Amino acid sequence: MAVEFKDYYQILGVPRSASEEEIKQAFRKLARKHHPDVAKDKKAAEEKFKEINEAYEVLGNPENRRKYDALGAHWKHGAEFRPPPGWHQHVWRTAPGGEGWEEFEFGGTGFSDFFEQFFGGMGASRFGGASPFRGGGWMGAEDEIGAQRGRDIEGDVLVTLEEVLRGSDRHISVRHRDPRTGESRTLTYRVRIPAGVQEGQRIRLAGKGEVGAAGAGDLYLRVKFAQHPDFRVSGADLYHDLELAPWEAVLGATVEMPTLDGTASLRIPAGTTHGQQLRLRGKGLPTTGGPRGDLYAVVCIQTPTQVSAEERKLWEQL
Fold first, then answer.
1. Who wins on pLDDT, 175 or 263?
2. Where residue 151 falls among pLDDT bands split at 50, 70, 90?
3. Whose CA is closest to 246, among 266, 223, 268?
4. Burial state string for 55-66 with b = 16 or more CB within 10 A and e = fewer than 16
5. Phi-psi region for residue 300, left (φ > 0), alpha (ψ -120 to 50) or beta?
6. What is the Cα–Cα distance from 128 to 119, expressed in whole angstroms?
7. In angstroms, what is the C-alpha Rg of the chain?
């Protein structure tokens, strides 16, 4: 199936030879600029933020980047992109009346069709197989064991940390296509993202999977956290790299730092060292039935790389 090729290097504005650090810096700069909480046009910013996240999901992961770069000369722009032969494995099963997989494509998950096909996780069939759209369904209604229930299908859904904090309602569409007949239908479901949802957690929509003679399977959405320009996630705790001037670390200071709730004042004790972690209790992510995690400021002392003659004398006096 042809899909629109995504040039992730162009999206992040970096050359194909960019280092991991250059890719990270480009992502953070763009993510801060287009974060929905700060942009005036929130809808446009939300789409751009998702696109930036998708690009970083691929280029910021060495294994995904290797796969992406392996497309090599086979890639091109536009809707006619097809992968090189053998790049992706297709699985087929014999069903009464012929062979084939039903294909499923997702919309509203935060990922493009290109990402879904080449970098998304595969939904396992009841026979242990997988389809190129993470939800291939066996088209036969009956076999030697009798009527079959429709297969469960599974897809990823990109969830921001703000949604983890507050919860949200999302509309997810699923397009079912029978490759043998070309017939397709698209259904849209309202999905509640609960506050405190965890990375890797699966949200179940009962009876929204493949339809079979003995009933419909379920639809599962596997939560993937969107990368945040200011925070890293570890369980329910958040980590933020806090840049300090040398004198702030030596003498102590009170600084403002970002949180998911806005900003908070943080007291820097005199004699703080590089790499030291300062905790803000209860400013992390919510947990199911428990208290919120903590937010840790990881101190990064910024040493000037260039100093004037006068500044050099002052440092020598110190």
1. 263
2. confident
3. 268
4. bbbbbbeeebbe
5. beta
6. 19
7. 24
